[in-house]
Design goal:
It comes from Sphingomonas koreensis. The protein is built from nine helices and nine strands. It is α/β, with parallel strands linked by helices. Helix 1 packs across helix 7 and helix 3 packs parallel to helix 4.
Length: 258
């Protein structure tokens, strides 16, 4: 039985990916700091084989323990490591606290780095896939979420580097670049004094992409040959514009700041 280990498995994209992979016969390992969230995800898997792992992705040593426990239950297999855990930090960058900056970098970037570092030997043994959640905010810098955007650029670059470095060792490395997935992170990311990311998306009349589409994109990324999988219309538009219309994107971003 193939197996997937999912960080941020207690909610959002992680939960949807767990449900989809379990429905297709995979063993699932859920990792999160949210015990209640993981328990609810496990309940939704309908009796599929699942293990729960309390994990703070910022703790490199804890990664070793969680993955060892998981492969101990999976018969030694780790076919996919889904580095998905992340937090949103928004608002005026100059007014963001040092604690918030450090937390965002430590979870969104170093959590991914530590996961890849800890998972390498298992993925090499299985010829598996490392899947990292980046963001459309990693395509072009996004006003109001500067540090979040920076971490997602870093995840994208890290994915590209390991795609080349690990190719010869039989490990596939992929990234998801979702735009506005309809999850709670949109409500918990302030981008102004009285505005959340969800408010901004609505004001701009942009789309909310159902989380199930993100889960299917994860499945496609794992089973395909595309390095960066774009999720949502906004992500696809940004990818095109960043490649061919960077000057226009810069002007638009500056106008939005006024």
């Amino acid at each position: 039985m193939q197996s997937i280990f999912i960080t941020g498995g207690g909610s959002g994209i992680g939960r949807a990916v767990a449900v989809l992979f379990a429905s297709r016969g995979w063993r699932v390992g859920l990792a999160d700091i949210n015990d209640a969230g993981m328990a609810e995800t496990a309940r939704l898997l309908g009796g599929a084989p699942v293990t729960i792992h309390k994990l703070d992705v910022r703790d490199r040593a804890a990664w070793d323990g969680a993955l060892a426990d998981f492969v101990g239950e999976s018969g030694g297999r780790l076919d996919v490591l889904f580095n998905n855990a992340g937090v949103g930090v928004g608002g005026n960058f100059a007014q963001t606290t040092v604690e918030e900056l450090d937390r965002c970098v430590d979870i969104n970037l170093m959590g991914v780095v530590y996961g890849a570092h800890a998972g390498y030997r298992y993925l090499k043994a299985s010829g598996g896939c490392l899947l990292n959640t980046a963001s459309a905010a990693g395509i072009y810098g996004t006003m109001g979420v500067a540090i979040y955007s920076a971490t997602k650029f870093a995840v994208r670059g890290f994915t590209e580097a390991l795609d080349a470095e690990w190719h010869g060792e039989g490990i596939r490395v992929r990234a998801l670049l979702p735009s506005f997935i309809d999850t709670a992170i949109l409500d918990g990311t302030p981008v102004g004094s009285n505005e959340t990311m969800r408010d901004r998306v609505r004001a701009a009349q942009l789309e909310f992409t159902p989380v199930e589409q993100a889960a299917q994109a994860a499945w496609d990324a794992v089973h395909g040959d595309t390095l960066h999988t774009l999720v949502g219309k906004t992500a696809r538009r940004m990818w095109f514009a960043a490649r061919f219309l960077r000057g226009s994107m810069r002007k638009q971003a500056r106008r939005a700041s006024k």
